[in-house]
Amino acid sequence: MSTKTAGRQISRQKARAKAKRRRSRRAPVGWIAFAVVAAAAMVAVVVTSGGDGTGGSAFGSDVSVTGEALPDFPSGGAPDPAAGALAPELRGTTFEGDAIAITRAGTPKMIMFIAHWCHVCQKEVPVVQAWLAEKGAPAGIEVVSVSTSVSETRGNFPPKAWLEREGWTVPVLADDESSTALGAYGMSSFPAFVFLDARGRVAARAVGALPVATIEQFIEQAKAAA
Question: pTM for the complete prediction?
Answer without folding.
Answer: 0.76
